[in-house]
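Morning F.,

Quick status update on the modeling queue. The single chain you submitted on Monday has been processed. Sequence for confirmation:
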Amino acid sequence: MLKLSVLDQSVSVAGRDPAMAIQATLELAVRCEALGYHRFWVSEHHSHPTIVGSAPEILMAAVAARTRRIRIGSAGVMLPHYSALKVAEQFRVLEALAPGRIDLGVGRAPGSDGRTAQVLNPDLRASERFPVQVQELQAWVNGQDLPAGHPGHGIWACPAGPSSPDLWMLGSSDYGAQLAAHLGLPYAFAWFITEGQGAPEALQLYRQLYRPSALHPEPQAVLCVWALAADTSEQAWYQFESRARWRIDRNIGRLGPLLPPGLAQRDYSPAEQQHLEKLRARALVGSGPEVAQKLRDLAQTYGVDELVLITWASEPEVQRRSYEILAREFALT
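Structure tokens below.
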């Protein structure tokens, strides 16, 4: 059976206090657990006028306090900003709060612009250490000592416990796929960032190069996709206008809170109109049965047994309704 999970990015909406996006994420997590979704992931962005979730580890703790079954994770922690030991400690604490339910997804991208990334970590070459950081993190979250001669030898991430966070590699290119394969880690491809571009190559490399690990003897890949379902196809495509406007504006460096669909239309240039038509052609949008079939086809094409769904909407009710419809279509409960 195809598993469905959720990635919520705490999106700010025009005319509302941005802090409301954090509260909406918590409410959505509770609802998605009740609907039968497998995981609930949150993201990390900095100095971003649209995506305001800047501290996934704190948000995860709040989600853990409100849920009992659903797995909780980061998609992801932007590791070059931080000490691997500190991240390991944070997620060991989360594991103690919600044993057996914590996913630690890490990425190399800044989750911000270059200036913000430099303020977070003045070391301009921090991303070059990413593979080493991941290996350090892998040891510390699993309660393993680092080799003799390493500065971290004999240092432990506390608290120890009978279970460990499940480490995931996130990516939207070949780089993350190859590193995940080399380290024997599960891999999540950010389809929603590239609209699928590069996915066949990344997944093929991941599976071909995969080196079995003790915790993950077989490769495990998921796709993170943007999807929106409504009671009718017409309603879904109307709500899609908010996302479409944001994507077109982003291409010209114009970012801001998500606009309601009624305010999202504007005159597009011929080049923008062409891009919009391509966006619509690939979009996982429509009625429940329509989106469910698109999701099944996508999973079958890429040989994955889990999809992580991202849904933006200017009204929380529209977002929740989309997840409710797809939970029904896939009989999650």
